[in-house]
Amino acid sequence: MNINLLAVPIMYGCDRNGAQYGPKILREKDLVEVIKNQNHVVYDFGNLFIPSVPESEKYANHEHIKYLKPVAETNNNLAHLVYSSLCSESFPFVVGGDHSLGLGSISGASKHFENLAVIWIDAHGDINTPETSPTGNSHGMPLAAALGVGVPELTNVYYDGPKVKPENVYIIGARDLDEGEVKLAKDLNLNLYTMDTVRKMGISTVIEEVLNKIKSSNIDGVHLSFDIDALDKSLVPGTGTPVSNGFSFEEGKKLLEGFLSTGLIKSMDFVELNPILDNKDMTSNLCIELINYIFKTLR
Ligand SMILES: NC(=[NH2+])NCCC[C@H](N)C(=O)O
Ligand SMILES: [Mn+2]
Ligand SMILES: [Mn+2]
C-alpha cells in the first residue's frame, strides 16, 4: 500500500513539554524502515509546521482553551494533507504529537468520504468542550469538535460544520471520562464501549459488533484514531495522561488487527507519545513494535 507519513510535532493540545518529540524519536528508531519492511511504499512528508507561540500567550485566543489559534491552524493544515493523501489513494498515517490533531485528521477524511465513521481507541473520550473541560487542554476536545460541539475555531476547521455523525462514532477503552463527557456521549447516543463494557463483552465481541454496525450503515471510509494511553499505565510511562486498568500489549494488538485487517480503515492517527516522560525508551520501543504490527496487518 502507499502510505503518506504525516508527522505532527504538536504539544499545544496537551500543554506538556515532550509530546512534540514523538515523531523525532520514532524516526530515530527507524519508523520509516519499519513501515517499508512490511511491504509498503512510504512517502515521508516530514514534520508539519507548528507555529511557535510563547507560553505567556497560552490564553491569548480564549480564556479557557490553551493555544487555540495554533491548534486550529495546525489542524487546518493537517486536514488538507489528509484529504490530499486520500485523493491520491495513499493511506495517511498521522504521527503525533498530542491528540488534538485528531480533529484535523477527521476533518480531512470527512471531506473525502460521503459517510465517514471514526473509531477512537483511548482511555479518554476526548469529547470535552470549553465548558466541560477540567484542564483547558484541547487534546481532550477533538472528537467533540469533529461532532460539531465546541468553539467555532475548532468546529469549523477546514470547512464549516460537523465532520462526523454521532451514530458513526465508536469510542473504545474509555475509563477516564469527565462528567460532561459522560453526558455528551449519552445526549448524542455515541457508540461508547467503556473499559467496563469491553471487559464484560470481551474484545472479540466488541470488534465484531463495531464492524457489523459499520458494515450495515453505508459507511464508505473509517478513520482509526489510536491514543497510546489506551494501553495500561504500566506499559506507557511515556505518555502525558496514563490511566490504569488499560489494555495489555496483546490486547492492543488484537484490537488493531481486528480493525486494520478488514480493509475498511482508510486513515489512522498514532498519538500521545512523550519521550521526555519515558522510562528508558520503554514506551517508544513499544510504539515501534505496535507500528510494525499495524503495518503488518493493514489491508
Ligand atoms: N488525548 C488525551 N490524552 N486526552 C486526555 C484528556 C484528559 C481530560 N479529559 C482533559 O480534558 O483534559
Ligand atoms: Mn486521546
Ligand atoms: Mn487518552
From TrEMBL:
GO terms for cellular component: cytoplasm. CDD domains: Arginase. It catalyses: L-arginine + H2O = urea + L-ornithine. PROSITE patterns: ARGINASE_2. Signal peptide: none annotated. One of its GO terms (molecular function) is arginase activity. Binds 2 manganese ions per subunit. Pathway: Nitrogen metabolism; urea cycle; L-ornithine and urea from L-arginine: step 1/1. GO terms for biological process: arginine metabolic process. Its cofactor is Mn(2+). Mn(2+) 1 binds at residues 99, 122, 227, 229. Keywords: Arginine metabolism, Hydrolase, Manganese, Metal-binding. Mn(2+) 2 binds at residues 124, 126. Belongs to the arginase family. This is Arginase. It comes from Anaerosalibacter bizertensis.
